[in-house]
């Protein structure tokens, strides 16, 4: 291949890589900006202009990356849940379903205490972002099934168990975010939920170990609701 042709091809490939990198950075900036906006305003009140202004990009950039508002909602919900689930991934190997549920409850609530932007975004998106609920239930469904199968949980149904866990977890996060309780509230919520599920040693299990997000710094910069 002639040197000139090789150089031209290399330059075209390089420009394509630069363009792809720029698009990825812009998309990430929009997702991060939306997370901050949702934390302040919730996911339904903001507009595209609110998000692009927060990201400091042109309004047209939004539609280069997201076909609709729902597409952005899905991206933000996925990013938020993937972040905490990655931090808690090491706890998936615990053999006791009750311990896994307790540690996940504590992890989510303590994560909210340590990162209020993330916490408010998750709480405010939970009821309107179906993908957020689906992602959060992925591991939870298995934990509940294991708990029932091994006799650790004595509940009327798996759905009831999931509702109790998710409802208490979200309200626990909200209480911490509003300053009505401290980060240690995570332990109390975990114990109360495990007791509701019929776990006899709930107090001990709810406070066993400190993993992942539970060890995160608990000195967040307050973010008003």
Automatic annotation (TrEMBL):
Gene3D superfamilies: Tetracycline Repressor, domain 2. The keyword DNA-binding applies. Pfam families: TetR_C_40 (PF21306), TetR_N (PF00440). It comes from the Bacteria. One of its GO terms (molecular function) is DNA-binding transcription factor activity. PANTHER family: HTH-TYPE TRANSCRIPTIONAL REGULATOR BETI (PTHR30055:SF234), HTH-TYPE TRANSCRIPTIONAL REGULATOR RUTR (PTHR30055). Residues 24-84 form the HTH tetR-type domain. The lineage of its organism: Bacteria, Pseudomonadati, Pseudomonadota, Alphaproteobacteria, Acetobacterales. InterPro entries: Homeodomain-like_sf, HTH-type_TetR-like_transc_reg, HTH_TetR, TetR_C_40. Keywords: DNA-binding, Transcription, Transcription regulation. This is TetR/AcrR family transcriptional regulator. Residues 47-66 bind DNA.
